[in-house]
Write a structure and sequence with these properties.
360 residues, alpha+beta, 7 helices
């Protein structure tokens, strides 16, 4: 007589076999999932903890769900090949006391990817993050924006690891406290059809040691729909997202300031856009033509030195950032160097990796 095991036991066994099969087919893509499961059963000293059947059951089902989502997402990604992809090195400076900054190079990475498929779907992706292995105090912060323009609508998905620290000490304390357990991401999902944007925000829990290199795993954890949605009517001329708005403004800055015949930034109108069901303006504060730009990865000719400002139309809160943009040739319209201060004590610099971009 063949013994019959309890339903939960059979389900765990099935999940284990399925997970193993999918892991073998996916290779190292899911290494973070396995590592998370392993570490979640270790104490801070690295000693194994006791796992009851209920805990094991929940974790195996979670891992199996992640695997299936990754398989589905991976198939979709492969069907939309990258038309252009550019990699960036992330450098950072930290202010210890007023007027005293210390910096470190290559503490993370960024990527701008443009995709297009046969159906007419166009996608722009921006991913940026620190590498806790190289970043000071093992700080692990990252996020992304994906804007996909379809024939009948536009889809926007963004996520950022939550961080509310106001000082370097608070950032260090939060990073130390999140080495174990889980971290929290705030995700935004919107669909824009005509003059209407529908979407909302979600809170996503993910493995604490997940980095920007494992974006596929985070994408698999984000629900397909927000539990609470809002609808916003868009004024005429509103761009579908930040990346699209910035693209159009960069083009305008090159037209006005892309040569020695600089006509100035005042003639460039602000560009409105929507993100997270809120309306913003991005404007060109100033621009200047530079015949040459030297960065830590190479030298570029014909560059626009442009400063931008983002303003929330409701709260009037303003954020500024600085871009050096190619004005001609293969790098026309491409950010070559970017400078941004997300906190008063932190300055982040992105520099185009010339070798990875295949630029001579």
């Amino acid at each position: 007589m063949v013994p019959r095991f309890p339903l939960r036991t059979r389900a765990v066994a099935y999940s284990t076999i399925t997970l193993r099969t999918q892991l073998e087919s996916q290779g190292t893509t899911l290494a973070a999932t396995v590592e998370w499961m392993r570490r979640s059963h270790l104490t801070r000293r690295g000693e194994p903890t006791r796992i009851d059947g209920s805990s094991l059951f929940r974790r195996l089902w979670l891992a199996t769900a992640i695997v299936f989502c990754l398989v589905a997402f991976g198939s979709a990604s492969e069907s939309t090949p990258a038309v252009r992809e550019h990699l960036y090195t992330v450098n950072a400076k930290v202010r210890l006391i007023p007027l005293v900054w210390i910096g470190r190079d290559n503490i993370g990475g960024a990527r701008i990817t443009r995709r297009r498929d046969a159906s007419g779907r166009r996608t722009v992706e921006f991913l940026i993050g620190s590498d806790p292995v190289r970043a000071p105090r093992r700080i692990n912060r990252w996020g992304f924006i994906i804007e996909s323009v379809n024939p009948d609508n536009t889809e926007v998905l963004g996520a950022m690891k939550e961080s509310n620290e106001e000082t370097l000490e608070e950032a260090e304390a939060q990073s130390a406290g999140r080495d174990h357990g889980a971290s929290t991401f705030k995700a935004v999902r919107s669909t824009i059809s005509g003059s209407r944007a529908v979407g909302g925000t979600m809170t996503v829990r993910a493995p604490a040691n997940l980095t920007y290199r494992e974006i596929d795993l985070l994408l698999a954890l984000i629900p397909p729909k927000s539990p609470k949605v809002r609808t916003v009517e868009l004024p005429p001329g509103t761009q579908i997202g930040f990346l699209a708005a910035l693209d159009s403004l960069i083009d305008a800055s090159i037209d006005r300031c892309g040569s020695t015949e600089n006509t100035g930034a005042r003639q460039v109108s602000p560009v409105p856009y929507v993100y997270n069901q809120a309306l913003y303006d991005v404007s060109l504060s100033s621009c200047e033509y530079k015949p040459q730009l030297r960065t830590k990865t190479g030298t570029f000719s014909d560059v626009v030195d442009a400063r931008f400002e983002v303003r929330n139309q409701t709260t009037h809160y303003e954020t500024t950032f600085h871009l050096f943009v190619g004005a001609s040739g293969e790098v026309r319209g491409l950010p070559l160097r970017a400078i941004f201060r997300p906190r008063s004590w932190l300055e982040v610099e992105l520099v185009l990796d010339r070798s990875a971009a295949g630029i001579p």
